[in-house]
Specification:
Blueprint lengths: L1 H7 L6 E5 L2 E4 H18 L5 H18 L3 H23 L15 H25 L5 H19 L5 H18 L3 H30 L1
Helix pairs in contact: 2-3, 2-8, 3-4, 4-6, 5-6, 6-7, 7-8
Length: about 210
């Protein structure tokens, strides 16, 4: 099945240009462009970022599978599902008290649960990838996979802390993509890391404004 899917996207697998001695495909160029547009929408709390996220994730699924980053590839399918859920949350989601979702803080208990979710599941996924796939970076691949799940859930519910989790994810993923010579994607994740700080600052101001109102 994957061979057929990769064959269907073969035209996009052609090199658009060469960067630092490695070919950059049209597939990667398109995925990066969609991802950048998504981040801008997320920072500005514009719901159209979610369908852009789904489209970019589908393209990155193919790219990561081709490079044997199976954890990150599987994560992209999760991203598609969560993008649809997140889109619905931003359009129709409600808080426990029935009010519409708005940017807010998670609180210390939620932060602790988020950290524990990553720490407790990362080794298990790394071990599974090491045992059942031919990846050469099982635990390195597993960490951003697990942490991204947590970050995406926090983003969908509009918690400010999602940006700090994304910052860690983006820095770890940046090093991974440099290791894999996915230079354009590595550059994208450098932008993502910077955008995480911009996003945190923008959402912090928005949450503070709500508190003071």
């Amino acid at each position: 099945m994957m061979d057929g899917l990769l064959a269907a996207f073969a035209p996009l697998m052609q090199a658009a240009f060469t960067l630092w001695g490695s070919p950059v495909t049209w597939l990667e160029v398109l995925a990066v462009a969609l991802a950048l547009a998504m981040v801008v929408c997320n920072i500005r709390v514009i719901h159209w970022g979610w369908p852009l996220a789904a489209a970019s994730a589908l393209l990155y699924f193919l790219l990561f599978w081709q490079h044997r980053l199976y954890g990150d590839a599987a994560l992209q399918i999760f991203f598609v599902i969560v993008a649809l859920w997140g889109w619905w949350q931003w359009l129709c989601g409600r808080r426990a008290d029935g009010s519409r979702l708005d940017v807010r803080y998670l609180g210390w208990r939620g932060r602790l649960l988020a950290v524990l979710a990553v720490v407790l599941t990362w080794p298990g996924l790394g071990a599974w990838l090491d045992r059942h796939t031919d990846t050469d970076v099982p635990y390195w691949d597993a960490f951003p996979t697990v942490a991204s799940v947590v970050a995406q859930a926090l983003l969908a519910r509009k918690f400010v802390e999602n940006w700090m989790v994304w910052l860690v994810v983006n820095l770890v993923a940046l090093a991974l993509f440099v290791h894999k010579a996915l230079w354009l994607t590595a550059a994208l994740y450098a932008v993502f890391a910077a955008s995480s700080l911009v996003g945190w600052r923008a959402w912090h101001r928005r949450a503070a404004a709500r508190t003071d109102a």
